[in-house]
Each structure stands twice: as C-alpha cells, then as structure tokens.
Specification:
This protein is of the alpha+beta class. It is 42% helix and 16% strand. It is globular, with a radius of gyration of 23 Å. About 5% of the residues have low confidence. Pfam families: RVT_1 (PF00078).
Length: 341
Amino acid sequence: MERPFSITEVTKKLQRAENSSPGPDRLTYHHWRSVPQGHRFLTAAFNASLHFQKIPPSWKKTTTILIPKTKTDLDNPSNWRPIALSNTIYKIYTKVLAGRLQDWSAKYGALSPCQKGFTPFDGVLEHNFVLKTRLEHARLRKKSLCIAWLDVSNAFGALPHQQIYKASAAAGTGEKFIIIIKDLYTDCATKILTNNMATNPILLKSGVKQGCPISGLLFNLGVDHILRRIQGTNSSHRILAFADDLCLLGDSPEDLQDMLDVVLREMTGIGLRLNPSNSFSLHFSGSTPIDVPPSSFRLGSDPFNRLWSSTSPNFSVNRSGLIPYRIMPLLIISEIVPRSF
C-alpha cells in the first residue's frame, strides 16, 4: 500500500467520481477532469503527500451544511442532518487510498467475511439469504433460532481515533499507512454554514469523517475484532454486519444472551454505545406447532423490544432502526408462522 501512485490509478478514480457538492475551495470533479494534464498534477500531488506522509492543511477543512429532517420543531438541533463537504482533491486522494486498502483487505483477509458494509458487492442480499436459510433450517429441524438486531448510537461519529489506529496496526496495515491515516485526522475542522454566516472552526475529535471515501473501511477495521470474537471458528453464521448494523444469531435464548453480553462489553470498551430502544429481538421456534416464544433479552440491565410476538403477530417494517435485511425474516415468518396460535 505504500508504493507510489500511478497515473492510471489516479485517473481511474477521477473518471469514476460522481459529481457532488464542492468543498471550501469550490472545485468539483468536473473541474479536475477539465484541467489539461490534471490527472498528472493530481498524481504528483498525491505522491508528494504519500512521501511526506502529510496532506496540505486546506485538505483537512470542511464545510458543513444542515438539512432539515422534518418541517416542524426546527429549533431542535437533532431535527437537522449535517452534511460535511470536503475539497474534491482530498476526496480523490482518499478514494485512491481506499481502493488500496480495499484490495489489501481482500487479499489478506483483514476484515471478517461477516462484514458486508462498504464492500464492492451487495452484501444485503447475502445477509437476507443467510437469514432465510437459518430460519428454514430451524423450521425443518424443529429447532430454535434467536435473533437480535442491534443499533449502535452515533457509531460513525463516536468511534475514537485511537481505536482506528490500534485496529489498523492489529490488522497489519503497516506503520507508514498508519502515519498517513493519523495525519488525515490531525487538526481537522469544519465550519457550519447558517443563513447569514459560518461558525468558527470546530475540531473533529472523534469519529470517522463524514463523506470521506476511506471512512467506511476505517470504521470496519475499528469494530472488526468484535465480529471475529462472536463468530469465532463456527461454521454457521453467528453474526451478520452491515457497517454499524449488527445481527446476532443464537441457537437458544441463553446462547443469544451470552453473545449480547460480549458485544455490549466490547462496544463499551472502545467507546461505543448500544441503543436498546432501537434494537430488536426475535425467538423463533421450529417445534410443532411453530411458535414465537415471548423470550426477553437485554443489553446490560436494559431490555429491548421483541420484533414479533404471538399476541401481536402484525409487524411494521417502518420502525426506526429497521434496515433492509431485517425485513426479509419478517416476510418469511409471516408465511410459516400461523396468524393465530
């Protein structure tokens, strides 16, 4: 990953970059593609940054705009969605770095195969298939399957930078690469635009950078040890991950609760917090008659919601915290679980 960038490597990332809002320098990808020999200039600039293991201070500055989530109660900051806009030259640079990290991770198995977020392929479909297979297996073998879908509060914004560096070192990315990543996160700041002015610079003290092409992979590295701890050497899937969305699969209520305790402990250890109010559980019993026992699970001392119960078999797929691969088991269960017990 430390070899000089080639013109072909940079050109490919530049040509594939989709136009987006520009950062503080107001330059778009179209501008860079329009500059004569622009790809050569970018390659030279990136190789200089790679050699000195530093990027220009201007690349570390972003502008944040606020998009309303609702039309009411706009005095509440939580009802606004922040969007960070980085300079496109920085995003091209980190696109090249991300491409190398992706290739390296795939070659050396640096990331657990249970993680499908920020991968070149549609991992949601694969997770859906795994869930469907496990549910069908439980039904045919008349066994239990206990599932928990976990929500991590502000996962991308809360991951400590030291955890990113520690995880990168543990994965074997190399000292030079870690120094490069540390520099990307040193003295980074954003200004929030309002109607009439911008705020003073706000330092980024935790979390991965919003809108940065390499952020997803760095986050995956940061939580990878948790996935490996749960999966272990088991041949059947025990954990499915799509970035910060986790799905645990246990063979019994006790088995699932043990996994929940481990995940809670490991998440807390790296400064992340699980959100019980947006987490859900399901205990499916394939024994005759097929049933959904009212088993309860907890995160520490906090219980969380059952996604389905025999007393209330109707379900909503629009609740906060549901993601696409959570919907699939509900559709399957609606076919194999009787509406009345």
